[in-house]
Queue: 2 jobs
Job 1
Amino acid sequence: MRFPNDTAFHLRMAAIVLAALFVEQLAQKHVPHWTSPQIGVVTFAVGLTWVALAAFHHAKSTQDRLRAVEARLERVQALADALADDVRSRRSLPRP
């Protein structure tokens, strides 16, 4: 997994899929007129489009947050370097 905080989501989704499989099997055995619904190509394509758009939105927001964190890290690194240079100049130590 790419993000540690996604673990709970994936575990919940896996549990839902397994529960759905068991419920479908039980429905076929215990409900006399049960038939699984048929999914058409258009419905399947719309569903895949929905999933792709959700993944794209998640990836884009994650990329934006990563860029912001990288910019902040660069600013902190520049500040740390400036402070280290200031300490060296005050102590009159040679520059490495």
Note: The chain has a mean pLDDT of 84.
Job 2
Amino acid sequence: MILFMGGERTAYRDPACYFYNGCYYLFFTVSEKENGYMYNQIAMSKSEDLINWSSPVVLTETDNLKNYCSPGCVLEKDGEFILCFTSYPMPRPFAECSIADNTARIYLMRTKDFKTFSVPEKIYAKGKSCDFEAEGRMIDPFLIKKDGQYYLFFKQNGVSLSVSKDLDNWEFRGSAPGGENACVIEADGRYLLIHSPKNGIGIKESGDLANWEDKGIHTLEQESWDWASGRLTAGFAMKSCGGTSSKYILFFHGSRKEAFPETHGEATLACAFTDDFQTFRYEP
């Protein structure tokens, strides 16, 4: 089911969703081409039924030296809701370099009402004593809480992991093979890692959040979707909170093969529905 259709100037990418007070809140990247440069911002839309979505509201500034984008998830802590995301600086024209430079890092911001949000705060995923250069390029954060600790997954040398007791002081735990846009969901007593390989929705399974077993890659009905002819990617899965008879909702985006660069791709946001992450349908 298509949610927001991309076009030559504006693309919609990298979905993440949270259910609160009867509404699904969908966060995503709005990517715009302007005078040869790429500008990314985080936007939000909401829906009560997964069919009718409000017009996107942009949450971050227009600045290609920051280019905040790729929301990972929302986590509740002490009456606040915390959204994690990426900075994706693209200071050069996209014809010269179509991806972020090495200053890409990960951030969070806070809200109590999904109306006003705090200024972005940098996540020191390798500890505050690690200097900026030594941190290295990192993108696509995702947070979960388990047994009183916070687990932070992010893209660096595969899927990297840090842990914290307070969302402020982090300890780096290493990396495992995997693609971009990590999303971790608990299903039937196991953890599923939804990630983005070169193309498709990759799935890995684990019992301990450290050792992952490949469970295949799904491309859904990509071959019949012209808006996903280039790449189908950025899967985000969540348990259904109503509006569908399926157990889980899978949000993702597709980009067109002929649209340059892929980091824009005239990308379109869509969602699918599943009970088992093996078979999917496209209407609620």
Note: The first strand starts at residue 2 and ends at 4.
